[in-house]
Design brief:
Elements lengths: L3 H10 L3 H13 L6 E4 L1 E2 L2 E3 L3 H16 L4 E6 L9 H8 L8 H8 L7 H12 L3 H6 L3 H9 L15 E4 L4 E3 H12 L5 E7 L5 H19 L2 E7 L7 E2 L9 E2 L2 E2 L1 E2 L6 H6 L5 E5 L10 H31 L4 H14 L12 H12 L3 E8 L7 E6 L5 E6 L9 H8 L3 E2 L3 E5 L20 E7 L2 E7 L12 E6 L21
Parallel strand pairs: 2-3, 3-21, 4-7, 4-13, 7-8, 14-21
Antiparallel strand pairs: 1-15, 5-6, 9-12, 10-11, 13-18, 14-17, 14-18, 15-16, 19-20
Helix pairs in contact: 3-12, 4-8, 6-8, 9-10, 13-14
Length: about 500
């Protein structure tokens, strides 16, 4: 039963009572596992273009950028970097004073190699009246870490990854957000304009705006472009209710508790973007300039494949809408849908002509994405699969392990034998052949969320994550997978990842 205070809270967030009731019901029933046909592999759902094909796709993308098209780079950047520093937070609370674990020893042995070293040294001098070297000589290691993480120092323990310095250059150091400025100029510029969009948390937006004000003109001069940079925040209307172990609403101080719905909530932010082509890449997956060539080449390759395939889909849709098509052209459309886009329907051969054309139009007239996939080297994360949809069709999907029934021997084997995984490397087309925006929430599979176990104020609770942005939130899109080299995937999950050769 919702109280007046509950209804006021729902109204403030923009959440309906019906949505809450639906979420509570889902907590009781759980999310169903997805039925798999197979893991996607090279030749079976994952493309591996030849050098000749690659050259054509790259040329196609360069031509597209010269046309009257809007291109944007979308960067989820709202997450705090606290998990990057969990080992250092543990050191601060440990009952020993000197580096003991391999992680701690590595951090201090290579501390001068971090791009933020000079700033940290200044913070130590300001707060402790001693340099890093002097503090270390005195055995005051924790003071150094404190100056790095605490708000009285650099506050890196509470800032988002986008505002942390990742790489050092002769002239300066760059944050990961600035590396996205550079990437945008190298593969996402259209007619001299680079559009960047960062999703940020409300308490960090001002800091991002200050970064833009500080460095925007420098990068415009460096690359001869103009930047249009925008921000958005995860909408409160996408928060999900938390429940107790018995699936009753969790209350904190008498009030209902809502939690952010995960990165799947960003489908709403993406839906608000007005662009023809949108690149999506995580904030921490960047490299220094000396290694950017491969990143740029393969981003352009993904985009070139996208616009080529979209052009073909648009051609077929115009034919269908004209009513002036031949039997051979319908056969060609079926082949494109089932073989190129890997969207298959076992019943298609039994469809009447009228139903077949309607089916083809529905499946071709959808948002489209091309996703880079890297060879599996044991990294955690989702993977590419051929999975069954609610309408009985089979299509390419990016799935997390939580969506797969590990008690099913066949499904578990498919997951374990997968050859590739998802590095979050997407290029998306979100308008139809008439130039009208698709309403992206209509293409979400609501049955692909996730329930996790958390705690609040010392009490256990169950939380719900919405279908992931590149998982269920894009379930009903036309999807293509393309193999990209591992060198294009260099995420920074812990601070010591910045010591790897690729970030030096």
């Amino acid at each position: 039963m919702l109280t007046n205070a509950d209804n006021l809270l729902l109204s403030k967030k923009g959440i309906s009572a019906e949505q809450v009731a639906e979420q509570l019901k889902t907590f009781q029933t759980g999310f169903p596992f997805l039925k798999l046909e197979d893991a996607a592999t090279i030749g079976k759902g994952i493309l591996n273009p030849t050098p000749e094909e690659t050259a054509e796709y790259l040329k196609g993308w360069d031509e597209y950028c010269k046309g009257d098209n809007t291109i944007l780079k979308f960067v989820p950047a709202s997450g705090a970097a606290s998990r990057m520093f969990k080992d250092l937070f543990a050191f601060l609370s440990a009952d020993y004073e000197v580096p003991t674990t391999d992680f701690e020893k590595n951090f201090f042995a290579n501390i001068t190699k971090f791009a933020f070293y000079e700033d940290l040294n200044a913070a130590c001098r300001s707060n402790k009246s001693l340099s890093i070297e002097e503090l270390v000589e005195k055995g005051q290691y924790k003071d150094v870490v404190f100056c790095l993480l605490d708000f009285t120092g650099m506050n890196y323990g509470a800032l988002p990854k986008g505002l942390l310095k990742f790489h050092t250059y002769e002239c300066c150091s760059r944050t990961s957000a600035e590396e996205h400025f550079v990437e945008g100029a190298l593969y996402a510029a259209a007619n001299g304009v680079v559009k960047l969009h960062f999703t940020v948390s409300p308490n960090h937006k001002v800091l991002f705006e200050e970064l833009v004000a500080k460095c925007k003109e420098r990068y415009e001069a460096m690359f001869g472009v103009k930047y249009e940079i925008s921000f958005s925040e995860q909408k409160q209307s996408t928060d999900t209710i938390a429940v107790n172990a018995d699936n009753t609403p969790f209350r904190d101080g008498g009030n209902l508790l809502f939690r952010p719905g995960g990165h799947g909530a960003l489908i709403e932010n993406l839906n608000d973007i007005d662009a023809d082509v949108i690149f999506i890449k995580n904030i921490d997956n960047v490299v220094p300039d000396r290694l950017k060539d491969d990143t740029v080449t393969y981003k352009k390759l993904l985009a070139g494949i996208l616009v080529k395939m979209q052009e073909k889909a648009f051609e077929y849709l115009r034919l269908i809408d004209s009513g002036n098509y031949t039997h051979e052209q319908i056969e060609e459309m079926i082949h494109f849908l089932q073989q190129t886009l890997q969207c298959r329907n076992a019943e298609i051969k039994d469809m009447e002509d009228c139903d077949l054309v309607l089916y083809l139009r529905k499946k071709l007239n959808r948002p489209m994405r091309v996703c880079g996939m890297v060879k599996n080297v044991g990294e955690p994360g989702g993977g590419p699969f051929l999975a069954y949809n609610q309408d009985g069709t089979v299509s390419l999907q990016i799935l997390e392990s939580s969506q797969i029934d590990m008690n099913n021997a066949a499904a578990k084997a498919m997951f374990e034998n997968g050859t590739h995984f998802n590095p979050v490397d997407l290029v998306c087309a979100v308008k139809n052949y008439k130039g009208e925006k698709f309403n992206l929430p209509e293409y979400v599979d609501k049955n692909t969320g996730f329930i996790s176990h958390k705690s609040k104020s010392g009490r256990e609770l169950k939380a719900m994550e919405l279908p992931g942005l590149w998982n269920g939130a894009m379930s009903d899109w036309n999807t293509l997978f393309v193999e990209v080299p591992l060198v294009t995937f260099n995420p920074v999950k812990t601070v010591n990842d910045l010591l790897r050769d690729v970030h030096q």
